[in-house]
Design a protein that fits this description.
The complex is a heterodimer. Chain A is of the alpha+beta class. Chain A contains 28 helices and 31 strands. The longest helix of chain A has 18 residues, at 3-20. Chain B contains two helices and 17 strands. The model of chain B is unreliable at 1-22 and 142-146 (pLDDT under 50).
Chain lengths: 887, 332
């Protein structure tokens, strides 16, 4: 402990003690402190969160083309209103039959921990206007067009944005913020508005020119950035039924001005892509990918696109607001994918030369340099693996859009074969996967996402004879696991949502989750207040009668991973059918004694339930939850699938069994039933990230509930049973996922905020109180030598929750004080003046609050290296009579 | 409950304000709905206002308005409600002589069975407005000749309210052989209003309404959303009036209202768009100078679509609000 630290600590304690003498006035103190638990979530969180949204290269590169005519993504409303400024399209007519098209697109994904993935895309290519021909009067057209594309995937946080802004020239930053319009929009728009969508239009416009041409440019890419170029599009044709038939149908249905269309047709899509990822200081990864997709699509849409703001600004073409009550697409296809992955150590000349060639499409030099281990070590070029996969996939999309509220459900289920070739040989795996993504969006509170994913891999030996493939299961000491993942992200969660989320997590993992408190839906004191205020309300004014709302809690993210041993599933499959139906009924909360017999006896309720599944299908078309269980319909399929898994010996048949098992609309109930039936404990882990939105207007009951919610932050709960290790094929998949938007996981050690202490200090002779932040961060001795920066964002805490109301945000160097003696190694202490002569450049709001009063939200994150920012943390506090109180 | 008290918590002011939505009676902390037996609540306002207008038709107006919204609870679930106003005005049309006059209206006088906070089924019978859309009271007096098609006069009829589920309310109202003084004929009408309650912010409602008057195949339909966020409120409403489904000559209204309460001030922002007619922006503020006295001002801009005319209105308003609350049984 150095002298400076001792003196500083004494001064700190002295000022605290002096102020303490003033007494603890209604919970107000001169010093408040908040501890942030160390992040315990799994290292693959980024992969799991975002890889679900843009599952593969093909989808990532044709978001607009494949997502349907009307609904592009769930966020399309706000994009219609504001972000379409960024999504621009221009065409140039070349001849009567040909146009040249160019389009830009930006998609931003929040990760749930305060960071964003920004996906910019530029496409250019010809568009053939004329129909290719007619089939019984229906025009036959290209479904999509061939395009050259360039993409840029970057990771951003508010801290990073601000840090970059402070190093940029004033005019550039001004332009990045749309000449002041962006901060203004951020202030006035609801939380669903994400300023990252519009930030930095200059880099966005530069997307076509961002792909590095040589090794030097590759190293200049920010860490974690992925850039790609390639060719994608369709070589097939589709029947566009928007023409005469649809018009006739529209007339007969009397739909008013809504448009109705049923395009149907075969698809043949292909894509060739080279991607580069800057992983560490001198290391880059290069992936060469090729995807072909062959299949058929059926796409039904009913909706209307309204051009708005068309006449607002003369030169602006306006935005599109969409009403689309039905938007439904199913697709069946065969996907063939080939990926090669190389890594380059660019501190070596050979690696630089090989990368220069590879960036121009020639990977032969990289291949030859990495073919032998010794050569690879010398050159710095390493061949990691080649993965060849072939899979059959069924996918569907159900969506509806009512302008201010939209919902979308995407599901895909596939099975196939994957061969990973490494220097030491091939690994063949038969794989099955089912991914479901549910998104609900509204204009006020933004998006709520629930993602579920099942995956199973079966290592096999493959033999090809007379063009036919034969497989044999490889018996290994470590069993194979069916892995199920669930992730819930909701940035505006209330107590009712919370109860639903916890229920789903409990069913999914079968963990009791006793650490997750049961929160009352309504705050009792608010209920009583509403009753007192509205008892005399004129019944004719009942539209203005306020319901007691569930308590708004704040940001919530949770994940659950469940690992089911294949032997466990085999044992379940051999059980008596009555035992299955009993457990399955129990999982749905039904009378299990009754259903253990009824399902086998085929009683009337059995048939009613079965028929009900067909009756509610039209509701599924518009992604409406009827509340109907599908209990019998799905139960039959699951029972048969379990029997196949238990009794089949052929690998292909076993894989089909797994695919059928995981193809469910009720994943939580399925897993809960399997847990009831399992003779041993099924390994599972559940983790939470919570950030309560404390508000000075919170009632006492609301405060209690929010505190309980906040205590769940960074909690990780798991079974006694050991969590298994991922197998080699899954690790290859994770590496490839690093190239998809959101797939990259930063492995560098970013510093994390552990403790933040705010204190009021007076430095004589100046009587003005100052606000001081002292932070403890994780770090190494190396960090101590360098500069530690702190990002501070101060927002108004008040009744107006709709906007962000940023008072100031700034990145500052922090003063190193010393090591913490209490927290052990790796905890460094820094200080930062928030107000006063050395305080933030704009801090008059703190001075005003010391004189009068005021409440604030303070967001903080720390960085030990350019762009290497730790998780953002938040503390809400109130200032009254010169003292502080944590909210 | 107060033995007898007069009190005004907060009153609002819109452009030409009338109504009493923000002066309210309250139950005491220990009281419940059962304590409403014998309760009397009367919210009254005296407004003095004047405005100047720069338009082709109007120069200005001054008026004094007294309004009342009074309720008597015979039992907690049997109550009488009375709402009325009287206005003495001086009007100055453009290029014409000054007009003076007095208007009186009884908006509501009905009996209500059930309590809106507790009972899934309620019935109101008497003189009342049929349930349709939001019925923003503070906008009622603005440009009555244009909003008439979108504003229902009170009728002699009945309204049944059914809280079908926790998140769904259905109101059905009907009237028979009511006089329509504007059209000089009798009319029958029924309305249906469905309200979906959502857990967004401090409470959000989606409201769909339909009205049919005898003789037309369609009538009036509307969609609205109202969002509460702490003490703020915003609403968006769409109403279409048409004679049949395929007509292109329908009348249509879009209206956005945002109210923000900041301590003792109430801000009101409003945008209204009448199809093929006008669009209008108005901003107003009311401030309590004492608990009973409110000062306010408003500014409105209106743009005519056909003749490209623009109207400006500036308004000043003083309101004295008196709320009387007591329990009649205790006075006996």
């Amino acid at each position: 402990m150095n002298t400076k630290f001792v003196l500083s600590s004494l001064l700190f304690l002295l000022t605290s003690q002096t102020s303490q003498a003033q007494g603890d006035l209604g919970g107000y103190r001169p010093t408040i402190s908040r501890e942030f638990l160390k992040e315990q979530s799994s290292s693959a969180s980024g992969f799991e969160i975002l890889n679900r949204s843009i599952q593969n290269h093909a989808i990532a590169n044709s978001l607009a083309a494949n997502a349907g005519e009307i609904n592009r993504t769930v966020e399309s409303l706000m994009q219609s209103l504001f972000y379409s400024i960024m999504d621009q399209r221009a065409t140039l007519t070349v001849s009567d039959t040909l146009k040249g098209g160019v389009d830009y697109q930006r998609v931003v994904q929040a990760t749930g921990i305060g960071t964003y993935v920004v996906f910019d895309k530029f496409r250019i290519g010809p568009e053939i206007i004329e129909p290719l021909g007619n089939i019984k009067g229906l025009p036959l057209t290209f479904r999509d067009q061939n395009k050259l594309f360039l993409t840029n995937v970057s990771y951003r946080s508010d801290a990073q944005r601000k840090a970059n802004a402070q190093t940029r020239s004033g005019w550039r930053e001004w332009a990045n913020n749309w000449f002041g319009a962006l901060p203004f929009l951020t202030r006035i728009l609801p939380p669903s508005f994400n300023p990252e969508e519009l930030y930095d239009p200059i880099s966005y416009l530069g997307t076509p020119f961002l792909f590095p041409k040589n090794a030097e440019q590759a190293l200049q890419m920010p860490l974690g950035t992925v850039r790609s170029y390639g060719l994608a599009g369709s070589a097939g044709a589709g029947i566009d039924a928007i023409g005469r038939t649809a018009k006739d149908i529209q007339e007969s249905l009397n739909l008013g001005d809504l448009q109705f269309s049923i395009p149907f047709g075969p698809i043949l899509e292909s894509e060739h892509q080279i991607s580069i990822l800057h992983t560490r200081d001198d290391e880059v990864w290069l992936a060469v990918s090729e995807i072909r997709q062959l299949g058929a699509v059926f796409d039904v849409q009913l909706g209307k696109r309204y051009p708005i703001f068309k006449t607002l600004v003369g030169w602006w073409t306006g935005s599109i607001a969409t009403i689309a009550p039905i938007d439904y697409e199913i697709e069946r296809s065969k996907i063939m994918q080939k990926d090669d992955l190389f890594t380059f150590d660019l501190s070596k000349k050979d690696a630089r030369d090989a990368l220069n060639k590879a960036l121009n499409g020639d990977v032969s030099m990289a291949k030859s340099m990495s073919s032998h281990e010794v050569q690879a070590q010398e050159s710095g070029v390493h061949f990691q693996f080649r993965r060849n996969s072939v899979r059959g996939e069924d996918s569907s999309r159900h969506a509806r859009s009512f302008f201010v509220a939209q919902s979308q459900k995407r599901a895909r289920v596939n099975d196939g074969e994957s061969i990973v070739t490494e220097n030491d040989g091939d690994t063949v795996t038969l794989e099955a996967e089912h991914a479901i993504q549910n998104r609900d969006w509204n204009v006020l509170t933004g998006v709520e996402t629930v993602d579920v994913n099942f995956r199973f891999g079966l290592p096999v030996l493959k033999k090809v004879q007379d063009g036919k493939s034969f497989y044999k299961i490889i018996e290994t000491p470590e069993p194979n696991y069916l892995v199920a993942n669930l992730r819930i992200i909701d940035r505006f969660q209330d107590t009712r949502d919370y109860a639903k989320s916890i229920k789903m997590l409990r069913e999914f993992s079968s963990l009791k989750l006793e650490q997750a408190p049961t929160l009352p839906i309504y705050a009792k004191d608010r209920e009583e207040k509403f009753l007192r205020e509205q008892a005399f309300l004129n019944p004719m004014d009942n539209t203005f009668q306020k319901d007691v709302p569930p308590t708004h809690l704040g940001r919530f993210e949770a994940y659950a991973h469940v690992y089911i041993n294949q032997n466990t599933l085999k044992n379940i499959g051999r059980l008596d059918p009555a035992a299955f139906w009993r457990a399955y009924a129990q999982a749905f909360g039904y009378d299990h004694d009754y259903w253990s017999k009824a399902a086998e006896d085929k009683t009337m309720p059995y048939y009613f339930n079965w028929l009900g599944s067909y009756a509610v299908m039209p509701l599924r078309l518009v992604n409406m939850d009827s509340g109907f269980s599908d209990y019998v319909y799905e139960g039959q399929g699951i029972k048969q699938a379990l029997e196949v898994i238990a009794n089949e010996t052929k690998p292909e048949e076993i894989l089909k069994g797994y695919r059928a098992l995981m193809d469910t609309n009720h994943p939580a109930e399925l897993l809960h039933a399997l847990n009831i039936l399992a003779p041993v404990e099924i390994p599972a882990v559940v983790g939470f990230t919570t950030s309560p939105d404390n508000n000075k207007n919170d009632t006492p009951d609301t405060t209690i509930v929010k505190k309980a919610f906040g205590r769940l932050n960074n909690r990780k709960i798991q079974t006694q049973a050991r969590i298994p290790v991922l197998k080699r094929n899954q690790s290859a998949e994770e590496k490839l996922a690093a190239f998809t938007p959101g797939g990259y996981h930063d492995e560098s050690d970013s510093p994390d905020l552990r403790v933040m202490t705010l204190s009021v200090r007076t430095v004589p002779p100046d009587p003005t109180p100052r606000l001081l932040a002292r932070v403890e961060v994780t770090g190494t001795d190396e960090d101590r030598q360098g500069t530690m920066q702190g990002y501070v964002r101060v927002e108004e805490n008040g009744p107006l929750q709709l906007g962000r109301f940023v008072l100031n945000e700034e990145v500052r160097d922090m003063r190193y004080i010393g090591r913490s003696s209490e927290k052990g190694e790796g905890s460094l202490i820094y200080e930062l003046d928030l107000s006063g002569p050395n305080g933030l450049s704009k801090s008059d709001f703190f001075d005003k609050a010391f004189k009068e009063k005021g409440a604030f939200n303070l967001y903080f994150s720390v960085s030990n290296h350019e762009d290497n920012w730790g998780q953002e943390q938040k503390i809400s506090f109130d200032i009254q009579n010169g003292l502080l109180k944590e909210l | 409950m107060h033995a007898f008290s007069t009190r005004s918590l907060l009153a609002t002011l819109s452009l030409i304000w009338s109504g009493s939505a923000f002066s309210i009676c309250l139950l005491q902390e220990t009281e419940t709905i059962a304590d409403l037996k014998g309760a009397f609540c009367s919210v009254n306002n005296v407004h003095v206002f004047g405005y100047g207008e720069a338009s082709k038709t109007q120069d200005g107006k001054g008026a004094t308005v007294i309004d009342t919204d009074t309720s008597v609870f015979v039992l907690p679930k049997l109550s009488f409600h009375f709402k009325a106003y009287v206005e003495a005005f001086v009007n100055k049309p453009h290029g014409q002589d000054v007009e003076k006059g007095v208007d009186r209206t009884t908006d509501q006088g009905y009996v209500h069975l059930g309590h809106s906070l507790e009972d899934p089924i309620q019935l109101s019978v008497g003189r009342l407005p049929l349930p349709f859309g939001l019925r923003q009271e503070n906008l009622r007096w603005e440009l009555p000749q244009r909003t008439d098609a979108f504003w229902d006069r009170s009728v002699n009829g009945a309204v049944v309210t059914w809280r079908a589920r926790n998140d769904l309310t259905i109101d059905v109202g009907g009237t028979n052989k009511n006089s329509n003084t504007l059209a000089d004929k009798e009319f029958s009408s029924f309305t249906v209003r469905a309200t979906e309650h959502l857990d967004l912010l401090s409470g959000t409602k989606l409201i769909g309404s339909y009205q049919n008057q005898g003789g037309s195949t369609v009538g009036k339909m509307g969609l609205a959303t109202i969002v509460f966020n702490n003490d703020d409120m915003s609403s968006l409403e769409w109403v279409r009036v048409a004679e049949d489904w395929k007509t292109t000559t329908y009348q249509q209204l879009f209206r956005f209202v945002y109210q923000n309460r900041d301590n003792d001030k109430l801000w009101n922002f409003e945008y209204e768009d009448l199809r093929h007619d006008t669009w209008r922006l108005a901003i107003s503020v009311g401030k309590n100078v004492t608990p009973d006295w409110i000062l306010g001002g408003a500014l409105q801009y209106e743009r005519q679509r056909f003749d490209k005319g623009s109207n400006w209105v500036g308004l000043f308003n003083v309101t004295y609000a008196v709320t009387a609350q007591t329990n009649l049984l205790r006075l006996l």
